Amino acid sequence: MSKTMASRLITALLFVASFVLALPAASHAKSDGRVIYDRNCVTCHGQTGKPDPSSPIVKALGVVPADFTDPLFNSREPGDDWKMVIKYGGAALGLAQQMPAHEAVLSDEDIEAVTRYIKSMADTRAHPPGEMNLFLPIRTKKAFPEDEVVYRGRFTDQDGDNSQKHVLEIEKRVGKAGQVILELVHESDNDVSELAEAEVGYKHALSFSNSHILSAAAVWAIPVEAEGDGELQTYLAYGKVLSDSWIFQSSLRLKFPFEDASDGEAELAGIMHWVHSPWPRRAYPALEITATNPFRSSNGDLEWTAMPQVRIGLTRGGHVALNLGVEFPLSGQAWDNRIYVTLLWDFADGSFFQGW
Ligand code: HEC
Fold first, then answer.
1. Would the CB of 326 count as within 6 Å of ligand 1?
2. For 112-119, what is the mean pLDDT?
3. pTM
């Protein structure tokens, strides 16, 4: 046998051997979400993803798992949050401990595959995905339609128009991509302290994917104790996931006072958050910049501010969170700084007292 024939034979044998050896490995590597689900999840979550409350197992659990076939529920929870729940169990993320951890029985690829499978159990194309429910900034408007109660405090020296404010916001989802807004604004400065205005509005997500969202909103501010006829505010809000660890949000807001619309102003705001961990109960720093321009003024009057801030998840699932920030004037404004405290409760994810 010549040398070349021998080497050809060896090459051919190696070629065949590589197939034989690779086959079981290849079929093992490809995780099948449905198979994993049927094996590990179906007893509690039901064949289709809709749990059967009359089944003895579900009855024994004492908690009925949520319905994966409901498009609103299925869309609003980010897939990455579900992967955490599946891997580490309900209790780790502030949910019921009856949801077991699968860290020991499923690989990360299996968890990825089963998450994709349960995400496919509802047609969610008309609903903005929960991935776009980005952190709430201080001034930049959020694009995602939410079920949330938010308190915002702005603490200042209360001198002149540098008023101190307490705002209570109730946001409620309506339809597939809409949200109504109700706000009460209390203001105080050196002269007055009053329930200044109530605001009602509507926000709608116009365009979204797994990495961006664009919404438009209109808000009517009605004076309660404050003077004047109120104003109309409109805004566009945009959110974008830039990478695994950076998210960007921006909004353009226009305010038109009813007495004289030319007294209004335009405000552009933007923020970058550093998302350094998949765990919600962490501190996430961000830098926010705003530019405000009264309609009447020339560009020279553009007022800039910078707001370093931090989002702190308080509950294990992060559905109650705090945001603390300081605003610094960058354009020689008459005030030194303003301190902001925001407390938010995402009530779709559980009661205020759950998961601490
Ligand atoms: C022993 C019963 C049981 C098994 C088995 C089980 N789950 Fe659960 N799961 C639950 C319960 C109960 C909840 C509800 C927790 C809550 O709402 O507090 C839950 C919650 C969840 C959630 C969170 C939904 C939300 O509210 O955001 C996901 C995702 C999930 N399960 C996926 C799975 C997957 C995937 C499997 C299989 C790999 C699985 N579960 C196996 C009982 C179970």
1. no
2. 96
3. 0.85
Ligand 1 site-directed mutation target among 64, 99, 114, 116, most atoms within 8 Å of CB: 99
The total number of structural domains that make up the chain:
2
Q: What is the pLDDT of residue 349?
A: 87
Domain check: are 138 and 281 in the same one? yes
Instruction: Establish if 182 belongs to a structural domain.
Output: yes
Within the chain, where are the H helices? 3-29, 33-40, 42-45, 56-61, 71-76, 79-88, 108-119
Same domain, yes or no: 153 and 90: no
pLDDT, residue 26, reads 40
175 lies in the same domain as 250: yes
- Comparing 5-9, 58-62, 303-307, which segment has the lowest mean pLDDT? 5-9
Tokens representing 236? 């566009």
Owning domain of residue 74: 29-119
Contact 89, 97 (CB under 8 A): yes
Closest protein CA for atom 26 of ligand 1: 66
Indicate whether 32 pLDDT > 60.
yes
Answer yes or no: is the C-beta of 44 below 6 A from any ligand 1 atom.
yes
Cα-Cα-Cα-Cα dihedral of 249, 213, 245, 109, to 10°? Answer: 170
Which CATH number fits the domain that encloses residue 106? 1.10.760.10
